[in-house]
């Protein structure tokens, strides 16, 4: 499974949103899809499923706001 697929699956499981792959540049916070509680769940699942640890203090919405940004951040952390 690719990083993109894993991240999209995690996002869809946490948020209940469907077809995020078609909307990779949608701002998840502005659209009300992701909130602070879901952000914490996202970070926990990214660590569990993708092996990347992101302290909540380093989670910046401007860098983690869209599905594509999240995929890019996870990919960077995996390398």
From TrEMBL:
A matching Pfam family: PP-binding
Biological processes per GO annotation: cell wall organization; lipoteichoic acid biosynthetic process
Coiled-coil ranges from the UniProt annotation: none
Pathway entry: Cell wall biogenesis; lipoteichoic acid biosynthesis
Residue span, Carrier domain: 1-78
O-(pantetheine 4'-phosphoryl)serine sites (modified residues): 36
UniProt cross-references to PROSITE patterns, sorted A to Z: CARRIER (PS50075)
Record carries keyword Phosphoprotein: yes
Keyword Ligase: yes
GO MF, one example: D-alanyl carrier activity
Domain of life: Bacteria
Record note on modification: 4'-phosphopantetheine is transferred from CoA to a specific serine of apo-DCP.
Keywords: Cell wall biogenesis/degradation, Cytoplasm, Ligase, Phosphopantetheine, Phosphoprotein
Cellular component terms (Gene Ontology): cytoplasm
Subcellular location: Cytoplasm
Functional note: Carrier protein involved in the D-alanylation of lipoteichoic acid (LTA). The loading of thioester-linked D-alanine onto DltC is catalyzed by D-alanine--D-alanyl carrier protein ligase DltA. The DltC-carried D-alanyl group is further transferred to cell membrane phosphatidylglycerol (PG) by forming an ester bond, probably catalyzed by DltD. D-alanylation of LTA plays an important role in modulating the properties of the cell wall in Gram-positive bacteria, influencing the net charge of the cell wall.
Family from the record: Belongs to the DltC family.
NCBIfam families xrefs: dltC, PRK05087.1
Record protein name field: D-alanyl carrier protein
Organism name: Vagococcus xieshaowenii
